[in-house]
Amino acid sequence: QLACPLDLGCHSVDASDDPFSRHLMSMEGGERGLPVRVNRDLLRTMRPEEVFIKKWSTPALRKQYYRSMVPEVAVALCSSCNHFFHEEDLEFELLKKKVCPFCRAAPKP
Q1: Residue 108's closest CA among 90, 87, 81, 83?
Q2: For residue 33, which of 69, 78, 62 has the smallest C-alpha distance?
Q3: Count of CB atoms within 10 A of residue 60's CB?
């Protein structure tokens, strides 16, 4: 599990400590793999290091927010293609070839 869209059937989170988890657990009959939609107030309660934002190059596409459901697993997001990676894998490829292994673009600052 890297990030949302969430797999609703496979995580055990203490919902009492986290408003997002309480919201997730309160969903009835959710289908596996469907995104969880939250409002701005709930998004603001999340720790920034657990939220990834996909920003697209065209204003026609809205930003997408993803939450890491396993914060112990470091995740990185390519700023060029918005592809998720295990952080160590992306760092290794950037050190080795200086480009994203998926889109072959140099990382944006």
Answers
A1: 81
A2: 69
A3: 6
ω into residue 101 within 30 of 0, thus cis? no
From CA 103, how far away is CA 76, in angstroms rounded? 14
Select from 20, 26, 17, 16 the least CA-distant residue to 69.
Answer: 20
Alpha-carbon span 92 to 8, nearest angstrom: 31
The pLDDT, as a whole number, for residue 8 is 34
Percent of the chain with pLDDT over 70: 73
User: Distance between CA atoms of 41 and 52, rounded to whole angstroms?
Assistant: 17
Please give the single-letter amino acid code of residue 29. G
Contact by Cβ (8 Å): 2, 73: yes
Instruction: Give residue-wise pLDDT tens across range 87-97.
Output: 999 999 999 99
Residue ranges, the chain, pLDDT below 50: 1-15
C-alpha of 18 from chain center: 17
What amino acid occupies position 62? R
